[in-house]
Amino acid sequence: MSDNANIQLARRWFEDVWNRRHDATVHELLHPEAVGHLEGADVHGVDEFLAARAALLDAFPDLRVTLESVVGQGDDVVLRWSATATHRGPGLDIAPTNRPVAFRGISWFRFADGRLVEGWDAWNQGGLLASLRAAA
Q: Is the confidence at residue 73, as pLDDT, over 90?
């Protein structure tokens, strides 16, 4: 696929999967054997991704991600993003604080044949959890 086609797939992933919560897009774009490298754990395939996303959305049901920069070359797309949310649920094993949060991150995606086959996410999850625990 072209650089631009993969960039459009990555943009669609964030908009449809994270902001619109469309599970059908996960099944369409995520390769069944995809691996997501997250801070502290890897996620394998569609079911594990959906479970990881559900845990985050349980804690932050109004999560909204904004893409700030997207660069693609060949099969790789790198995205710099920011997110806002309110901690309203217990999905992270922390009592809800009803506190608004904002954080930034970077995702690196590798596509093959129009599907996401591998991804790396880096964001300050530890700092976010520490601030929520302090507020709880």
A: yes
Q: Residue 16 pLDDT > 90, yes or no?
A: yes
Query: What phi and psi values does residue 135 have, to the nearest 5 degrees?
Result: -85, -15
Mean pLDDT within 36-49: 95
Q: State which H helix or E strand residue 118 sits in.
A: strand 115-123
The answer to whether 79 touches 107, Cβ cutoff 8 Å, is yes
Q: Which two tokens stand for residue 70?
A: 């997207």
As for how many domains the chain has, the answer is 1
Are 65 and 53 in contact, with CB atoms under 8 Å apart? Answer: no
Q: Give the CA angle between residues 92, 94, 97 to the nearest 5°.
A: 115
Kindly write down the DSSP assignment for every residue of 47-110, as one continuous string.
HHHHHHHHHHHHH-TT-EEEEEEEEEETTEEEEEEEEEEE--S-TTSS-----EEEEEEEEEEE
The whole-model pTM stands at 0.92
Q: Please check the confidence at residue 111 and state whether its pLDDT lies above 80.
A: yes
User: Which CATH number is 68's domain given?
Assistant: 3.10.450.50
The alpha carbon torsion through 82, 85, 90, 95 (nearest 10 deg) reads 110
> Is pLDDT above 90 for 79?
yes
